[in-house]
C-alpha cells in the first residue's frame, strides 16, 4: 500500500464544539491506524496549543481533547498557524511541547505533496 498523509486544518474551537471534536477525532483515528497526520490549529482552535486549554474543552459523548492530541502527537505533528498565533499574542515559548508555529507556505507545501489528503473542519 502506498504511503499516505492526512493534513487536517481545524478552524473551530469551543465556538463550534462538534466540528472541533470531529477534526481531532478523525486525526487521532488516522494516526492510530498508521497514517501520517499533520493537524493545523487555526482560528479558535489556536487556543488548544496552550497548556491546559484542551482540558477545558467539553463535549458530551466525545473523547477528551488532551487524549486525542496525545494520540496525534505520538505519530504525527500539530502545527499552530503563524497569523492565528500572532492575533492571539501566542509565541513559541507559550505553546505545548511538540507544537510548532508555521505559516501558509508550509501548509500549502504539505497539502500539495503527493499522496496527501486534506480536510478542513
Could you give a short account of the major beta sheet? Answer: 5 strands, parallel
Question: Which spans of ≥5 residues are poorly predicted at pLDDT below 50?
Answer: none
The level 1 CATH classification is: Alpha Beta
CA radius of gyration: 13 Å
Structural class: alpha/beta
**Dominant shape:** globular
Strand order of the largest sheet: 4-3-2-1-5
Mean pLDDT rating: 95
Beta-strand percentage range? 15-25%
Q: What would you say the CATH architecture is?
A: 3-Layer(aba) Sandwich
**CATH superfamily name?**
DsrEFH-like
How many β-strands, per DSSP?
Answer: 5
Terminal CA distance reads 27 Å
Number of domains: 1
The helix/strand series, from N terminus to C terminus, equals EHEHHEHEHE
CATH topology: Hypothetical Protein Ychn, Chain: A
Instruction: Supply the number of helical segments.
Output: 5
Short description:
The chain is an alpha/beta fold and 121 residues long. 38% of the residues lie in helices and 21% in strands.
Structure overview:
The protein has 121 residues and is of the alpha/beta class. The chain has a single domain (5-120), classed as 3-Layer(aba) Sandwich (Hypothetical Protein Ychn, Chain: A), CATH 3.40.1260. The protein has 5 helices and 5 strands. Strands 4-3-2-1-5 form a 5-stranded parallel sheet, with helices on both faces. Helix 1 packs parallel to helix 3. InterPro entries: DsrEFH-like, Sulphur_relay_DsrE/F-like.
